Amino acid sequence: xxxxxxxxxxxxxxxxxxxxxxxxxxxxxxxxxxxxxxxxxxxxxxxxxxxxxxxxxxxxxxxxxxxxxxxxxxxxxxxxxxxxxxxxxxxxxxxxxxxxxxxxxxxxxxxxxxxxxxxxxxxxxxxxxxxxxxxxxxxxxxxxxxxxxxxxxxxxxxxxxxxxxxxxxxxxxxxxxxxxxxxxxxxxxxxxxxxxxxx
Length: 199
Description:
Residues 3-135 form the BFN domain. By secondary structure, the protein is α+β, with helices and mostly antiparallel strands. The chain has six helices and eight strands. It has two domains: 3-150, Bifunctional nuclease domain; 159-198, no CATH class. Residues 138-159 have low confidence and may be disordered.
């Protein structure tokens, strides 16, 4: 069966399920999108790695990567191989230098691992034709900026309130947010610092 390569094109707060997120995967050579509802922990784990943020302590998926690297195991690819009753089934294709092993995983965990190992994500035509959405023009809007993933979920300090703080105060708050694992707030502070560097 021919595999179809996917990229992460969006991550946003789910409008249909409270406390959940919509991860949107896009067909690399086409216009179809595959939306997958995932939990907040997995959404945060994906966002942190995409944004190249460093948590104060390793998250579960970081631990998985460290363990794999310690034993010379790489994840070569992720395959979303089935869809049953609205549930996606995925597997990690791992290689230790001698043999290839396929490990079953929740799709959200598989994607969180894939961004850490920088490995490709694939699915099959029957899954895209069943659950995919065809994009015509700009009819389907998705978030390219992963920082916005939890703005609707957590009432936190508005980004505008950071403008009155000095660079040193912002850096202190950034470290505090990271130590408290308040990654949404940390992303907003980082954006304000980056905006100042650019201007």
